[in-house]
Design brief:
This protein is α/β, with parallel strands linked by helices and 113 residues long. The chain has a single domain, classed as Transcription Regulator spoIIAA (2-Layer Sandwich). It contains 3 helices and 8 strands. The strands form 2 sheets. Strands 7-6-4-2-1-8 form a 6-stranded mixed sheet. Helix 3 links the parallel strand 6 and strand 7. Helix 1 runs parallel beside helix 2. It is globular and about 30 Å long. The N and C termini lie close together (5 Å).
Length: 113
């Protein structure tokens, strides 16, 4: 799974560079995000602009990351594609996560696989 890590102001921006966030990559996704957020205390914005398909396992992985970060470190999502936005709406996750229309412009820190 390919992701990039950037910084936009105080927030870490994790961009998912895969077209699918599903059962096949959910565990890898959680492991990568855990590693990327291990030492930083800033808010995290998940850029999903490249994700065209998100299933229940992928959504569960995003929720697991939110819980892992804890209540003092918000997880926000950005740049949802039409299908992903629809899933967030149908599952009412749009009431749980702050959703940005666009991902913030971030200064790249590193790429991860």
């Amino acid at each position: 799974m390919q992701v990039t890590l950037g910084k936009a102001g105080e927030a870490l921006v994790i961009s998912i560079l895969e077209p699918r966030l599903d059962a096949a990559v959910a565990i890898t996704f959680k492991d990568i995000v855990r590693d990327l957020t291990a030492t930083e205390g800033s808010p995290v914005i998940l850029d999903l602009s490249k994700v065209e398909f998100l299933d229940s396992s992928g959504l569960g992985a995003i929720v697991a990351v939110m819980k892992m970060l804890g209540p003092d470190r918000p997880l926000e999502v950005a740049a949802l594609t039409q299908g992903v936005r629809k899933l967030f709406r149908l599952t009412r996750m749009d009431t749980v996560f702050k959703i940005h229309d666009r991902a913030p412009v971030a200064e790249d820190i590193k790429a991860a696989e």
